[in-house]
Design a protein that fits this description.
The protein folds into two domains: about 120 residues, Rossmann fold; about 270 residues, no CATH class. Helices cover about 45% and strands about 15% of the residues. It has 18 helices and 13 strands. The strands form three sheets. It has a six-stranded mixed β-sheet. It has a five-stranded parallel β-sheet with strand order 2-3-4-1-5, sandwiched between helices. A two-stranded antiparallel ribbon has the order 6-7.
Length: about 400
């Protein structure tokens, strides 16, 4: 089993709260993680029809059968259990009594806010990070732009192989052909489950919508344009996007402004949370095809953003990341907001660093109050070093 960075935080949360909820996309490794971390807990999967029927028809009897602590997997299958958990938790007041997992954030959080507010910790597990797959420690976000990673890069590792395969655990555990597994994942989860939840009748339009989203990865999101290309309304596109985001398939990176209110009304940029799934949706057939593909830069940028997001989640933190663009078209790919200062990050898939790579960062440092800020360039090469007063980080040292 590949060790997950989240395990330590998961155990800590279980020592402090009576209920811990682990949310993430299907096949992100939630079940494997909780069964390993809580081996002494009883375990019930609510995907099992018998368990699900018992829990649905007799919630009190179902929960009353457990004398100790229990893991309830895929809790969103029986949402009525949340109301009964509240009474048990309030009476017992026992840390780590219930460990819950689920795959649909919007359904779960609605029930949590109604029944378990203040009684639970909520954590988010996404597919493997690069550092988990490499058996390395997690990147410290506070050192970004300040410190060059010290561990040696693997000269045999290939960026485009890594991006093409993606991070879903089963592909790595079973050494499966990524495109075949991702095709089944797409058909059984995205096309079937997500579409059914949204009550989408036009399968062709929904499939076209998802692939058009993939083609717009790394771009400013124009709802009207996307709706027109899909042949549906802007409100429908907004609803479908909200579902994909709640299912941890895509992430909308908001723009950074001095006024927090403005962050909410400007167009976000669209990214996918797994580079392998993104490659599948773009119909990229191999890592060699990706190497010369016109969207290889967008795939790499999406991967860098997703690795940063995973780092926040694995640390138990809410992501405080944005992008920045002014009216003249100057842009910074990612900005980490540390409160006291902002850390700009430029992303380039090229392995050879050129002076053009630093233009955006140089402009940022020319802005009032930003001259001494830490800046970072993440690139597709294997070396990390300092150049032009910038920390240049290899993809092998990111995540």
């Amino acid at each position: 089993m590949i060790k997950r960075h989240m395990e330590k935080g998961l155990l800590k949360a279980a020592s402090e709260y009576p209920v811990v909820i682990l949310i993430g996309p299907r096949q992100s490794g939630k079940t494997t993680l909780v069964r390993a971390a809580f081996a002494k807990h009883d375990y019930i999967s609510l995907e099992d029809p018998d368990h699900r029927e018992f829990a649905s028809e007799d919630p009190r009897g179902f929960l009353g059968q457990f004398a100790g602590s229990v893991v309830l997997d895929e809790i969103q299958r029986v949402p009525q259990l949340f109301s009964y958990l509240q009474g048990i938790v309030d009476e017992a007041d026992k840390a780590g009594q219930f460990i819950l997992t689920g795959s649909q954030n919007f359904l779960l959080m609605e029930k949590v806010s109604q029944s378990l507010a203040g009684r639970c910790a909520v954590l988010h597990l996404l597919p493997f990070t690069r550092s988990e797959l490499a058996g390395q420690i997690m990147m410290d976000i506070s050192t970004v732009g300040r410190k060059i990673p010290m561990w040696k890069a693997d000269e045999k590792a290939d960026l485009f192989d890594h991006l093409f395969i993606g991070g879903y655990p089963r592909i790595h555990d079973k050494k499966l052909a990524p495109q075949r597994w991702l095709a089944n994942y797409y058909r059984t989860y995205i096309e079937r489950d997500v579409r059914q939840i949204l009550n989408v009748g036009d399968t062709e339009a929904f499939s076209r919508f998802i692939r058009l989203c993939a083609g717009r990865c790394g771009q400013l999101l124009n709802m009207s344009s996307l709706a027109a290309d899909c042949g549906v309304s802007s409100m429908t596109v907004k609803r479908w996007l909200s579902m994909l985001e709640a299912s941890y398939l895509v992430f909308l990176l908001r723009p950074h402004h001095k006024s927090f209110r403005k962050r909410l009304v400007k167009a976000p940029k669209l990214y996918f949370l797994d580079s392998g799934l993104l490659c599948y949706l773009l119909r990229i057939r191999s890592s060699e095809d990706l190497r010369i593909h016109g969207l290889r830069g967008a795939v790499f940028e999406s991967w860098v953003v997703s690795e940063l997001l995973k780092n926040y989640y694995n640390s138990g933190l809410e992501p405080d990341i944005y992008f920045w663009r002014d009216s003249a078209g100057h842009e910074i790919d990612v900005v980490i907001d540390l409160g006291a200062e902002l850390v700009p990050i430029e992303i380039k898939s090229g392995q050879t660093i050129t002076t053009d790579f630093f233009k955006g960062l140089d402009y940022w440092r020319s802005l009032p109050g930003q001259g001494g800020c830490p800046v970072t360039l993440v690139h597709g090469g294997n070396a990390s070093y300092t150049r032009r007063n910038t920390i240049v980080i290899s993809w092998q040292h990111w995540g």
